[in-house]
Amino acid sequence: MTEYLLDTSVLIDLVYEDGEAIRVHDDIAGDAATTTASAYELMKFFEETPGLLARKTVFDLSPEDAAEAGRLYRELHGRGALLGEVDTLIAGTARSRNLTLVTRDDDFERVADLDLHLF
């Protein structure tokens, strides 16, 4: 069962074979997925991704994920603490699916009720 959602920052670090990212990934690899939003961001920077995405479950944006991202946008907008659009979709997906978001991006700390593994 998937318990973790990998953010784009982690995927990029895995492509670059960052030791800390590899250690974290190895601890959770069987329980980790990512999103089409992160796949899009990754593919903006890399023409090929050494099979990384092929070895992951990649969640499409569901109507429930989109609704949660919309709620999240309104919450953050009301506090004047917006995330980027793609990060809002990623965080909304994590909250909607009750997954722990694994990231190096401390901007996600703004999101209430988001289980976060920040390293």
TrEMBL record:
It comes from the Archaea. InterPro entries: PIN-like_dom_sf (IPR029060), PIN_dom (IPR002716), Type_II_TA_system_RNase (IPR050556), VapC_family (IPR022907). Keywords: Hydrolase, Magnesium, Metal-binding, Nuclease, Toxin, Toxin-antitoxin system. Mg(2+) binds at residues 7, 87. CDD domains: PIN_VapC4-5_FitB-like. Its cofactor is Mg(2+). One of its GO terms (molecular function) is hydrolase activity. Residues 4-113 form the PIN domain. Its EC number is 3.1.-.-. Belongs to the PINc/VapC protein family. Toxic component of a toxin-antitoxin (TA) system. An RNase. This is Ribonuclease VapC.
